[in-house]
TrEMBL record:
<dbReference type="InterPro" id="IPR002129">
    <property type="entry name" value="PyrdxlP-dep_de-COase"/>
</dbReference>
<comment type="subunit">
    <text>Homodimer.</text>
</comment>
<comment type="similarity">
    <text>Belongs to the group II decarboxylase family.</text>
</comment>
<keyword id="KW-0210">Decarboxylase</keyword>
<dbReference type="InterPro" id="IPR021115">
    <property type="entry name" value="Pyridoxal-P_BS"/>
</dbReference>
<dbReference type="GO" id="GO:0005737">
    <property type="term" value="C:cytoplasm"/>
</dbReference>
<dbReference type="GO" id="GO:0030170">
    <property type="term" value="F:pyridoxal phosphate binding"/>
</dbReference>
<dbReference type="InterPro" id="IPR015424">
    <property type="entry name" value="PyrdxlP-dep_Trfase"/>
</dbReference>
<dbReference type="InterPro" id="IPR015421">
    <property type="entry name" value="PyrdxlP-dep_Trfase_major"/>
</dbReference>
<keyword id="KW-0456">Lyase</keyword>
<feature type="modified residue" description="N6-(pyridoxal phosphate)lysine">
    <location>
        <position position="316"/>
    </location>
</feature>
<dbReference type="GO" id="GO:0004782">
    <property type="term" value="F:sulfinoalanine decarboxylase activity"/>
</dbReference>
<keyword id="KW-0663">Pyridoxal phosphate</keyword>
<dbReference type="Pfam" id="PF00282">
    <property type="entry name" value="Pyridoxal_deC"/>
</dbReference>
<dbReference type="GO" id="GO:0042412">
    <property type="term" value="P:taurine biosynthetic process"/>
</dbReference>
<protein>
    <submittedName>
        <fullName>Cysteine sulfinic acid decarboxylase</fullName>
    </submittedName>
</protein>
<dbReference type="GO" id="GO:0019752">
    <property type="term" value="P:carboxylic acid metabolic process"/>
</dbReference>
Length: 504
């Protein structure tokens, strides 16, 4: 396949990830959720591919065509329908949006596109760092970030899309250190004291990676105890902060989590925020931001508006195309830019003919970044805020349904009661039932999940991970978030595990 056509295919697949043809209906159990019309989805992909082939790869490479249809930011905002609404948009409207994206985007594969960088042609995609190079996507990212911040409860603020949640957490730690010790940017690590970071025992490993990369050191990441459900214990956080201070370290950041990786636990944000305010610490929140779409379940993140920053990964619960991670800030002092800017004059001239505040590349540690906002924007545009809420509610509904059905069956044992979409459980085969007090029980139980996993993978029936954790032998950490899941799928899962592990 021609490379340009291959890139167009990839771009089309990314656009198709929005599942633009979703409709919302009530199932027989009363749970509202998306009904995906694959024929309509295929029609959208086919029509989008035609636009990309004709407008991007054909006309976009024609020297007789314009490199760009320039519009000033305010005018382009009026021309584009960027607003994200409660309800989704129909096929024809979405396709028109695709055409307008192409029309007003810079044709980076044009023979007369001369810039400091020669980009690999990527249909409907570019490196986003200045308004003149990515006008549509600069405005689009601004709209999406603003909408996400409003769900958090911030009327203003800042943010940027990052290549994954781990990088978003690195951003947070870098900004927190810069806010506390701005001299570090100029003078380096020797100019700051020993620093201390705090995260729970269930926190994401990227906090440790960020501390290692930024010269803070793994020994200065203090792990805070959790309760049996995996939630951070505020009293132990206070103890760990005092411990760090007694050792001569300066606390500067607390990483809280909403929906931990393994158990899906929600840390008590208000109590953690109280402690952060008392000690003057940056409060980073990572995890299940998509819960905020749900009126039924957003109470799980009570206190979120008190955080200083948030890492939100729509490519997880909402299943937007990889990668799609937003780093959100409450700050309104341009801290993101002050911390990261290099002010290079070959890109960020101050005397440009448009408002240079739309040149967002200097906020990023990598300057340019992929237009990941498109994935979430197009999905949101297609199904609306209400549609995304129904996706979240459906995930919670089927998580509870799975647990309900699991408790009816012999041999399934929950590790903890789920708070989120995470259902952690053991399957206890008939040979081990009633033998929990025997000397060999734990050792034999630890081999059950790996054996079942091998069988399901070799037979191709399912794929579920397994792991040990905190003294617990191997168990299954099941996550329920597909918009296509049904009661039939739940019953198949349970029956298949029984079939695969019944003779162990």
């Amino acid at each position: 396949m021609d490379p340009k056509a291959a890139e167009a295919t990839a771009a089309t697949s990314s656009l198709g990830g929005c599942q633009a043809s979703e409709q919302y209906v009530a199932s027989k159990d009363g749970q509202k959720g998306p009904l995906i019309d694959h024929a309509e989805g295929q029609r959208f992909l086919n029509d989008t591919f035609k636009v990309i082939m004709e407008e991007v790869l054909s006309k976009g490479a024609d020297v007789k065509e314009k490199v760009c249809e320039w519009r000033d930011p305010a005018e382009l905002r009026r021309l584009l329908d960027l607003e994200l609404l409660e309800d989704g948009q129909p096929h024809d409207h979405l396709l028109q949006q695709v055409k307008e994206m192409v029309k007003y985007s810079v044709k980076t594969n044009h023979p007369r596109f001369y810039n400091q960088l020669r980009f690999l042609t990527e249909a409907l995609n570019t490196s986003q760092y200045t308004y003149e190079v990515a006008p549509v996507f600069v405005l689009m990212e601004d709209v999406v970030l603003s909408k996400l911040r409003s769900l958090v409860g911030w009327s203003d603020g800042d943010g940027i899309f990052c290549p994954g949640g781990s990088v978003s957490n690195i951003y947070a730690m870098n900004l927190a250190r810069y806010r506390a010790f701005p001299q570090v940017k100029l003078k380096g690590l020797w100019s700051v004291p020993r620093l201390a970071v705090f995260t729970s025992e269930e926190g994401h490993y990227s906090i440790c990676k960020a501390a290692s990369m930024q010269g803070i050191g793994l020994e200065n990441v203090f792990l805070v105890k959790t309760n049996e459900s995996g939630c951070m214990l505020p009293e132990d956080l206070t103890d760990k902060i005092e411990l760090a201070k007694s050792q001569g370290a300066v606390p500067f950041l607390v990483s809280a989590t909403s929906g931990t990786t393994i158990h899906g636990a929600f840390d008590p944000l208000d109590l953690i925020a109280d402690i952060c305010e008392k000690y003057g610490l940056w409060m980073l929140l990572g995890g299940g931001g998509s819960v905020l779409f749900s009126k039924k379940h957003r109470h799980l993140m009570k206190g979120i508006e008190r955080a200083d920053s948030m890492t939100w990964n729509p490519h997880k619960m909402l299943l937007t195309g990889l990668q799609c991670s937003a780093f959100l800030l409450k700050d309104t002092t341009d801290l993101l830019k002050h911390c990261h800017c290099a002010n290079v004059t070959y890109l960020f001239q101050k005397d440009k003919f448009y408002d240079v505040s739309f040149d967002t590349g200097d906020k990023s540690i990598q300057c340019g970044h992929k237009v990941d906002c498109l994935k979430l924007w197009l999905m949101w545009k297609a199904v609306g805020t209400r549609g995304l809420e129904e996706r979240v509610d459906k995930a919670f509904f089927y998580t509870r349904y799975l647990v309900q059905e699991m408790k009816k069956k012999e041999g399934f044992q929950l590790v903890t009661e789920p708070q989120f979409m995470n259902v952690c459980f053991w399957f206890i085969p008939p040979s081990l039932r009633g033998k929990q007090n025997s000397d060999y029980y734990q050792e034999r139980l630890s081999k059950v999940a790996p054996a079942i996993k091998e069988r399901m993978v070799r037979q191709g029936s399912m794929m579920i991970g397994y792991q040990p954790q905190a003294g617990r032998v191997n168990f299954f950490p099941m996550i329920v978030h597909s918009p296509q899941i049904s009661e039939q799928d739940v019953h198949f899962l349970l029956n298949e595990i029984e079939r695969l592990g019944g003779d162990l």
